[in-house]
Amino acid sequence: MISIGSKTKYLTSMGELKRKDNSIVFINENGNNYIPVENVREIYCMNEITVNTKFLDFASKAGIVIHFFNYYGYYSGVFYPKEQLISGKLKIRQCEAYKDSREEIAKAIVLGISENIYEVLYHYYKHGCKEIKETLDWLKNDVPRFLSKEINIKQILFVEGLIWQRFYNTFKYILKEEFTFDKRTRRPPENPLNALISFGNSLVYAKTVSQIYNTHLDQSISFLHEPSEGRFSLSLDLSEAFKPIIVFKSIFNLVNNKMLQVDKHFDKKLNCCILNDVGRKIFIGEMEERFNNVFFHQTLNRKTTYYNAIKLDAYKLIKYLLEGREFKPFSLKEMV
């Protein structure tokens, strides 16, 4: 079990979650691990975890969100308490915006991805990685110009795909040679770098699910990603701008400082590669440190964290829907 801060618990070993009086107990091969319920906001089940209805009812009343991940590190699903924050008016506005303003919101999300990738890459350009200048110029000039045009959702998604592909193409200049990246592969990831990206993206998605749960937004009505059954597509939308900041900065730091190594921290099988238990704990620790990193937010004029910035983006979207204010996802330019 990994405890991060006072509210987030990661369960990385097999075991069982149960209620014991007014506490949570995690039972595994090492015995009973008691967790005071008031110290839990989220539980991340990274292995085979058994739960029963008595425990789930207890977790629901305590307002605890429980995320489940599969063997490959992909997000399987979530249990969260009955929604308390419901707004019929906001849901209607959200539906109307999908019909009337979908492209405007989707463009803002894609521009947010581009701006944060630019800021991440510019750090390496300043420190001697001159090979990425062409990509930086493209992100700074061409992407905003194209997104300013009247384009449909398919064209917006095409631009988003190009942004990520151009970003991936810079990895050979930034990362250690053993972390090669030929193409993005999923389900399952085929090499260590794809394994890190998939696992990291799943964690950011889960964090976004938790944060949107604490707002009046409907998780199923999205704008960049197509709304569909079986997933919270709005969480996919709002998590995108944070992936360069949280996922990829974590990967670059861990790989380049040799805290994650191919031969030590990954299990490779036929056409499949996943983080082993040690590697997963290292990566989770780095990601959580970034989520909880405190910085001064220029727009808010106060200190906050990246984790809280996800919820702030949800509130920005609410203000856009109800008040017509500009929706602009979080940018690294907003921090000092």
Short description:
The protein is globular. Helix content is 49%, strand content 17%. The protein is built from 12 helices and 13 strands.
Textual characterization of the structure:
- The chain is of the alpha/beta class and 336 residues long.
- It folds into 2 domains: 2-69, Ribosomal Protein L15, Chain: K, domain 2, CATH 3.100.10.20; 88-334, Four Helix Bundle (Hemerythrin (Met), subunit A), CATH 1.20.120.
- It is 49% helix and 17% strand.
- It has 12 helices and 13 strands.
- The chain has a 5-stranded mixed β-sheet, sandwiched between helices.
- A hairpin with a 2-residue loop joins β10 and β11 (272-275).
- α7 (192-213) runs antiparallel to α9 (243-256) and α7 (192-213) crosses α12 (306-323).
- The two termini are 34 Å apart.
Topology summary:
Blueprint: E1 2-4, E2 8-11, E3 15-20, E4 23-28, E5 31-36, E6 42-45, E7 49-50, H1 53-62, E8 65-69, E9 75-79, H2 88-100, H3 102-126, H4 133-147, H5 153-169, H6 171-174, H7 192-213, H8 233-239, H9 243-256, H10 262-265, E10 266-269, E11 272-275, H11 277-291, E12 294-297, E13 302-305, H12 306-323
Parallel strand pairs: 2-6, 3-7, 6-8
Antiparallel strand pairs: 1-2, 3-4, 4-5, 8-9, 10-11, 12-13
